User: Which sequence fits this backbone?
DNA sequence: CGTCGAATTGACTTGGTTCAATCGACGTGG
DNA sequence: CCACGTCGATTGAACCAAGTCAATTCGACG
């Protein structure tokens, strides 16, 4: 992890000092006094992989920031067909502002640490502090951009382009610090079945395409989950 | 069009008095004095079907409100494959806030009237008036919800479910006033090829599925563009 | 070493694409 | 007023990418 200038101001709550969201997430816009007030009502919660954090059409009484791990947002048709409609990484904000009912199911894809904020408290803070709403607006717009990018993948790419696009997305999101390097490696935060739900494919097709990428020496796979991308440029060229 | 209470305040600019956006769009949150100031720098522009309003990766120097017609937002892969990633109806706001470059191409799907606002002017107004940003936040969140709904359609529905979902979407968006009625009729704002780009299908498949819906008496089609939905409930049941 | 869930691989089927022919509405010019 | 060209839509037939069903294999863990 790269060095980062931090004032380690005595006003900054201990819990927040090492937090991703403190720097790049929504808390970055808060004044020390606001941060202190906020930190008194937040709670860091650990969830293990598979835990359901919010259910479709169910009320949610808190928002959260992802501090560690990956959260998947899914939607399900009556007959059980499922689609992942978003992935949230640290330090993303989690929750649908201004609506009690979640339109999606949120589930921990890996072990996850969340920093939870009561719904009413955040909304009050937001109404007092336009900069906070502005920051969340920025994230919402980014999520909309990402959703639209993904619609192209879902609607117009072939299975092999979809799998390549997924690997490329994970490689660039999981560890942004190695930006520009040709070789990357990471552990997949999703099972084959989850990847299939993300890509609108079956798990068999995902598996076959991963095998093909491995046979073509674009990636190496060790122990099911660990992926080495041999050449990011070559991976990108397969994204369609 | 249903009756609507309006104060017809003399402070309300003439141009705005009959405008959709004045009531349900972003202008609804403005004070009469702000609206007056804004109306001095807006320009109503008419575009005919097919006109390109903004291009992918090209700078845009104004935002706009859709006053009449339908605008399609598209993304294109290098090899020409295209996907529609959003449709904007009156009184939607048009434009990507805070980023000069549009990430999508905006094109008039039908003849369109836009109310254009210079970029800098709107951003200044927004920074002075948090209620305005709040309102645009609401629309952005709604668009994100819609994009995620559509991801399920693109990723997990069959061709016939996709076409039914599209007709259902258009029927409910084009004329919200007939909400709850079993029979609806409207003119499709898109060609078969556009519909295919929206659904991630080919135009032939769209045509075949429309023919099937007609054969099954779910819809009637007259003159290529006009559609009568015989029973909204039956249409909905085919949406998967 | 055995068990269990996840992943891979193979054989077969199929929904949707591709390529191609035809239709129909509309506008233009002879 | 009708013949012709254009453009969008429809329909048919052949093909193929991805899905389905089923059998192993792999890897983690007790």
Assistant:
């Amino acid at each position: 992890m790269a060095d980062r200038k931090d004032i380690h101001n005595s006003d900054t709550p201990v819990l927040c000092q090492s937090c991703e969201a403190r720097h790049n997430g929504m808390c970055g816009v808060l004044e020390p006094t606001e941060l202190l007030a906020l930190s008194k009502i937040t709670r860091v919660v650990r969830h293990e992989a598979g835990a359901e954090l919010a259910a479709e059409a169910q009320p949610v009484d808190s928002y959260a920031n992802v501090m560690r791990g990956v959260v998947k947002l899914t939607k399900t048709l009556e007959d059980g067909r499922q689609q992942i409609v978003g992935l949230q990484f640290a330090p993303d904000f989690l929750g649908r502002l201004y609506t009690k009912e979640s339109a999606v199911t949120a589930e921990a894809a890996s072990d996850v640490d969340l920093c939870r904020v009561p719904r009413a408290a955040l909304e009050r803070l937001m109404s007092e502090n336009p900069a906070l709403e502005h920051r969340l607006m920025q994230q919402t717009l980014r999520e909309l951009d990402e959703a639209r990018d993904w619609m192209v993948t879902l609607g117009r790419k072939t299975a092999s382009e979809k799998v390549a696009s997924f690997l490329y997305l994970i490689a660039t999101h999981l560890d942004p610090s190695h930006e520009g390097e040709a070789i990357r490696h990471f552990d997949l935060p999703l099972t084959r079945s989850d990847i299939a739900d993300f890509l609108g494919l079956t798990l068999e097709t995902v598996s076959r395409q991963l095998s093909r990428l491995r046979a073509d020496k674009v990636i190496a796979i060790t122990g099911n989950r660990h992926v080495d991308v041999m050449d990011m440029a070559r991976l990108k060229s397969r994204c369609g």
